[in-house]
Design goal:
This protein is of the alpha/beta class. The chain has 2 domains: 77 residues, no CATH class; 261 residues, Peptidase S8/S53 domain (Rossmann fold, 3-Layer(aba) Sandwich), CATH 3.40.50. It has 14 helices and 15 strands. Helix 6 runs parallel beside helix 12, helix 7 runs parallel beside helix 8 and helix 12 runs parallel beside helix 14. It starts with 6 loop residues before the first helix and ends with a helix. The mean pLDDT is 91.
Length: 353
Amino acid sequence: MKRYDKYEDWVEVISENLPEIPKIITGEWLKEQLLDRKSYFRNWGFCFADLKEHEFEDTIDASIIRKVPFSTRTIFPKNHPFHFNENIFHTFDDVRNLHELGIDGSGVNVAVIDFTFDTVPNELKECLNNFVNLNDKAEVHFHGTTVSTQFCGKNLGIAPKSKLWFYGTGQGKKNIEDDILALKDIYKQNQKGANIKIINISGSSHMDILEFEDIYIKLLEQECYIIDSIIFGENFTTINQDSNTKEYYYSDWQILGMGEKELKSKIAIPTGGKMTPLVTTENDYLYCGQSTYSWGIPILSGYFALALQINPNLTYNEFVELAKKTKTEKEGIQLFNINGIINELNKEKSNKM
C-alpha cells in the first residue's frame, strides 16, 4: 500500500482531486464548493494553492471566507479577504485563561487511538510520552495528528500538559482488531501503574463486537474512560467559532444532515475556527473553519482531562452531569462551559477541606 509520508505526496494526491480554481474567485463559487459533499475543497480548500495570479471578488461575505480551508503554505495574491487574527494559532480564550492558572492537564495521562503518522509536529513533541504503531501496512494519515493536537497540543490543545500515549492504527471496521490490541495494551500499562485515564477514539466501528465490549468493561474497572463518536454523540455536538467576531456557527455538513433543531438539543463543543498541523510537516498549519466530530471528541476529552486535574476520582458520567448543570445558552444554542465545571469542582474541593 502506498504511504503518503511526504508533503509532496499529499500535494499530488489531493491536488488532482481539487476543482480548478477560477481566475476571479467569487463568493458563489466558494459556496458551491463548500456545499458539495463530494468535493475535496471542503476539507482542503486553498491548502496547497498558489493564488498569486488569481483575484478575489470584493463582495465575498466573511461568513463564507471563515469556512474556507487554507494553510501557512498557501500563496495568496496581494489583495485577499483571508484576514484572521493570531487566535487561530491558539486554543480558545477561556481555555488559555485556565492554562495561565495552571489548569492544563498536568498529571493526567491520556491515550489516542487513531490513524498512524510518521512526522511528529512541534505541537505534540512535548506531550508525546509513548508512540506505538500497530499496523505497518496502514497509510500515514493526517487524522491522528489532528485529533492528538486538539487534545493536548502545545498551543492548540485543551490539555497541553497531559502525557500522551499514541496508538497508530488503520481505523475503520476492517481494522477493529488494531483498536482492540491498543485497548488491551493500555489495560496492561495501567496494571503496571501508567494510570491512563482517558482513551480517545474518534472512529466508532466497534458496535456489537463482544471483544471490544469486554475490554471496555475491564478498563472501566481501572477508572479509565473511552470517549468515541458514539459516546460523544449521546450528549454533545460540535459548533465552530469565528476567531474575529466570536460568533458561533454550525458546519454546512451538520445543517444539511441534521438541521438546527436537532443540533440545538445537544450541548455544543466549540471546535473549528483555528489551526491544526499541516500533514507531514513539523511547523506548518492548516486552517479548518468547519470541523467534524473528529475534532469534538478530543476537545471534549481535553476538557475531561482538565476536570480530572481538579478531581482525579471524577467519573465520565459525573463529568457529563456537570456539563449539563453548568451549560450556558446563546440564541437557543446550549454551549459547553468549562469554566462552570471547574468552578463547581473547586467548590466541591473546598467543601471537603
